[in-house]
């Protein structure tokens, strides 16, 4: 399996009381598929999996499968503190016919590389689906280093890695020493560098509300090989990336962005709170400018 294109970690829309709005979730997935994203990830951190019960996580994965119906790639997130919960999500992904699973390090435990690899291999054995690893040491506390990658490499199901460390040297390492593991951009402000080093896919939360603009960058770099155009698009996207990452308000910004595009997103679940008026205004201004700029570049 080749991971190619834009993979959107879909939001989970909520009502004001915090309950999940399943109709809005289905509408969000339809919006993404109509826009041409190549894959949808259910149960990622942008979807607030950490604030959901296991029953909700399974239910939302099943709903995502019902909505997508094979029209685009469906990846199911399995990250959890308890191995048993990750295995339960992997088994459920296989049961509903998902195309792949996302496997990260268990948060808070801080396992050794050997322990982390054995954890990932246990999840793999539970379902046998293609796997995209998720390296995010800033959230999980550990890095998927050489020992980890060598150990999980014993299974051919580990096909790709979403690299979110922010360390550009990791991009070099993966491209040089692990070319058999497909590298996927997981650090938005380094997307151009990832594509230059051979990445063919990008997991980007911002594509929840700006799918066309993210697809434009991927197409320019990964399909056309036009990095002059890619740099111009990337330059237009950079203010958005700074807003998304500032002050730990990533999910709140993504959700407000969806509301801006007419898609109901609702508030995040506690402990997160919605954006204030100033933050909303800043995001809206940035989005207006970048949409105009990228549309002009695409029209040339």
CATH first level: Alpha Beta
What does the radius of gyration come to?
A: 18 Å
Oligomer state of the chains in this structure: single chain
CATH fold-type name: TIM Barrel
The computed structural class is alpha/beta
Name the helix and strand elements from N-terminus to C-terminus, one letter apiece. EHEHEHEHEHHEHEHEHHHH
Q: How much is the average pLDDT?
A: 97
The first-to-last residue Cα distance is: 34 Å
Q: How is the main sheet built?
A: 8 strands, parallel, barrel
Order of strands across the main sheet: 1-2-3-4-5-6-7-8
Give the structure's gist in a few sentences:
With 300 residues, this protein is an alpha/beta fold. It has a single domain (5-223), classed as Aldolase class I (TIM Barrel, Alpha-Beta Barrel). The chain is built from 12 helices and 8 strands.
How would you describe this structure to a colleague?
There is one protein chain. By secondary structure, the chain is an alpha/beta fold. Helix content is 50%, strand content 12%. The chain has helices spanning 22-35, 54-68, 83-96, 113-127, 137-140, 146-152, 168-177, 191-196, 211-223, 227-245, 250-260, 277-299; strands spanning 5-9, 39-42, 73-77, 100-104, 131-135, 158-163, 182-185, 201-203. Strands 1-2-3-4-5-6-7-8 form an 8-stranded parallel beta barrel, surrounded by 6 helices. Helix 4 packs parallel to helix 6, helix 10 (227-245) packs antiparallel against helix 12 and helix 11 (250-260) crosses helix 12 (277-299). It is globular and about 45 Å long.
């Amino acid at each position: 399996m080749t991971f190619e294109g834009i993979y959107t970690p879909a939001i989970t829309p909520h009502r004001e009381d915090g309950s999940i709005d399943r109709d809005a979730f289905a509408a969000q997935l339809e919006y993404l598929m109509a826009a041409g994203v190549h894959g949808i990830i259910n149960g990622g951190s942008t979807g607030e999996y950490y604030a959901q019960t296991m029953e909700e996580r399974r239910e939302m994965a099943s709903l995502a499968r019902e909505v997508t119906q094979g029209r685009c790639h469906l990846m199911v997130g399995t990250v959890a503190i308890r191995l048993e919960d990750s295995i339960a999500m992997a088994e459920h992904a296989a049961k509903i016919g998902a195309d792949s699973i996302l496997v990260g390090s268990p948060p808070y435990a801080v396992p050794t590389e050997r322990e982390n690899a054995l954890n990932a291999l246990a999840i793999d054995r539970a379902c046998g689906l293609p796997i995209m690893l998720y390296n995010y040491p800033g959230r999980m506390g550990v890095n998927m280093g050489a020992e980890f990658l060598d150990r999980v490499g014993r299974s051919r199901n580990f096909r790709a890695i979403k690299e979110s460390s922010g360390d550009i040297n990791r991009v070099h390492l993966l491209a040089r020493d692990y070319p058999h593991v497909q590298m996927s951009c997981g650090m938005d402000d380094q997307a151009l560098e990832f594509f230059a080093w051979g990445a063919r896919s990008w997991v980007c939360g911002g594509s929840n509300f700006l799918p066309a603009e993210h697809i434009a960058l991927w197409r320019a770099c990964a399909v056309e090989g036009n990095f002059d155009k890619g740099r111009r698009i990337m330059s237009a996207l950079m203010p958005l990336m700074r807003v998304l990452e500032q002050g730990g308000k990533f999910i709140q910004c993504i959700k407000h962005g969806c509301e801006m595009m007419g898609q109901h997103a609702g508030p995040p679940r506690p402990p997160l709170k919605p954006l204030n008026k100033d933050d909303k205004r800043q995001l809206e201004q940035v989005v207006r400018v970048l949409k105009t700029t990228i549309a002009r570049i695409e029209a040339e």
